[in-house]
Design brief:
Layout lengths: L11 H7 L25 H9 L13 H14 L3 E5 L2 H12 L5 E5 L4 H13 L3 E5 L4 H7 L6 E5 L11 H10 L3 E5 L4 H4 L9 E5 L13 E5 L1 H15 L5 H11 L2 H19 L5 E5 L9 H7 L6 E6 L2 H11 L4 E2 L9 E3 L11 H7 L5 E5 L5 H15 L16 H4 L38 H9 L23
Parallel strand pairs: 2-3, 2-4, 4-5, 5-6, 10-11
Antiparallel strand pairs: 1-7, 6-7, 8-9, 9-12, 11-12
């Protein structure tokens, strides 16, 4: 017999394991995989009533499936959304969210910094159907304000963006978009719901590629669209039901199992990404490092307001353009060259020749994508191995070292594991000199094990899901002789 549902709000880690759980009468422990295309009815009358909506019964896996429903409910619970529908891919989710809402004569305003396929939908596909489109620089609120002087039906944006990790002020843009009559669709794939929940900042719809962090192990494809129950059921569902971007039950089940460890994988990957970003800022071969939680990021303050951590991706520019970037990529011996991201394995790509190769060169330049830009998706390997791999490959990119034989020998890099240093007194801060190209990599330093510190990342994530508490009346006094209990 099934347990009654908890009457208390559940935390993210619990939602990722138990959200949407729906056991069959066999009382299985793991989520059941309903690998079926269709369903049977007890009678012709039940079949008729199912199609008229008089009774609830599974019809066809393109419309819905118990395994798929569990995934949708788990995602909605994690995101804080009323409803969710999953799709075969992330791009199916993006295109469905837009095409279900739009018609000829409508107008779309989009952030210029979009994934290549999203950029193509806005720039090329939508105009074919009589839909006007306009791009703005996502970080420039003045451009958004100008664009919203005319009526608009939909806004599409990414934050952080792919690949340059540009931030968009979700609250400000959402408020302006709503005044112009538009819904706001946010591609939140780089942040995941653990780091950023756009609905809390005023967005209307959130889309994901579940292929990335949610599966997290490079196995299957999937996408998701989340929003209000009314919009999902009345606007999105008729479109997806009749156009068929359905996910397979097997893929949904695989993603369900991947989600069980999302709260363990994403924090670890974020910590490694932050350490790598700090290391890259010291390298002479690197002219720019993009990471939202680096103080050098132009929107560092906004990132700290909207996100619980800096994310799992780091983008950086290598001096010497494409030739040097290719030397660097080819010299890596642990990190793989791949255009995917959010995987347990660290993956790296050259956006100008892969993910954004179909974007015009002048548009890439406006996005800040140079011939030397590379995007690193940080995985779950030991961060010391990743830092060693990157450092040696940067030497090769500068022409000062030959590629090494592939090796995964373990080491501990002091800087990667050391706690943050205390800030220097005001007025005495001195920039750290970059290590000169070709200089020897410091020998690894063994360190004694340190007692574990409180997981501040977990507290930050929990804060995303905590509703604001009403302040206690200032004049209320505690009874004499008793101490008021905080919280």
């Amino acid at each position: 017999m099934a347990k009654p549902a908890s009457d208390r709000p559940l935390r993210p880690a619990t939602l990722l394991v138990r959200g949407g759980l729906m056991r069959s009468n066999q009382d299985e422990t793991s989520e059941a995989l309903y690998l079926t295309s269709g369903f049977v009815y007890d009678s012709a009358k039940q079949a008729e009533q199912t199609f008229t909506g008089e009774v609830e019964h599974w019809q066809y896996s393109r419309f819905g499936n118990p395994t798929i429903a569990m995934l949708e409910q788990r995602l909605a619970a994690l995101e804080g959304a009323e409803a969710c529908r999953v799709t075969a891919t992330g791009m199916a989710a993006v295109s469905a969210a837009m095409l279900a809402h739009l018609k000829a004569g409508d107008r779309v305003v989009a952030s210029r910094a979009l994934f290549g396929s999203c950029h193509w939908i806005v720039s090329t596909l939508l105009p074919r159907y009589g839909i006007q489109t306009e791009f703005v620089d996502g970080a420039d609120l003045a451009q958004w304000r100008t664009a919203f002087k005319r009526p608009c039906q939909l806004v599409l944006l990414e934050t952080p963006s792919n690949p340059m990790l540009e931030m968009v002020d979700l609250r400000a843009v959402s408020d302006m978009a709503h005044e112009a009559g538009a819904i706001v669709v946010v591609d939140n794939v780089f942040a995941t719901p653990l780091l950023q929940r756009p609905l809390k900042f005023g967005a209307d719809v959130v889309v994901y590629s579940l292929t990335k962090h949610f599966d997290g192990q490079g196995r299957v494809l999937g996408g998701a669209v989340l929003g209000s129950k009314k919009w999902i059921e009345e606007v999105l569902q008729p479109f997806t039901r009749n156009t068929g971007p359905a996910i397979s039950a097997f893929n949904a089940w695989t993603i369900l199992k991947g989600m069980e460890t999302l709260h363990l994988r994403v924090p670890a990957m974020c910590r490694s990404a932050a350490a790598i970003a700090q290391m890259l800022e010291e390298r002479a071969e690197v002219s720019r490092v993009c990471y939202p939680f680096l103080a050098s990021h132009p929107q560092y303050d906004l990132a700290k307001q909207q996100m619980a951590a800096g994310g799992t991706l780091v983008t950086f520019d290598i001096e010497g353009g494409k030739e040097a970037a290719f030397r660097f990529l080819d010299a890596l011996r642990v990190i793989d060259i791949s255009n995917n991201l959010g995987d347990a394995k660290s993956l790296i790509t050259h956006p100008a020749t892969t993910t954004h190769s179909k974007v015009a060169p002048e548009e890439r330049a406006r996005l800040g994508i140079t011939e030397g830009s590379v995007r690193l998706s940080v995985g779950l390997e030991d961060v010391a191995d990743l830092i060693e791999d990157i450092s040696t490959a940067l030497d090769a990119a500068g022409g000062h070292a030959a590629p090494r034989p592939k090796s995964v020998a373990k080491m501990v890099v002091e800087q990667a594991s050391a706690p943050p240093s205390q800030p220097e007194p005001a007025g005495e801060t001195k920039p750290r000199p970059k290590r000169k190209a070709g200089a020897a990599v410091p020998e690894p330093v063994a360190r004694a094990a340190k007692p574990e510190e409180p997981d501040l990342f977990a507290k930050a994530v929990e804060g995303l899901f905590r509703e604001p508490q009403a302040a206690e009346p200032a004049a209320e006094a505690a009874p004499a002789g008793k101490r008021r209990r905080k919280g």
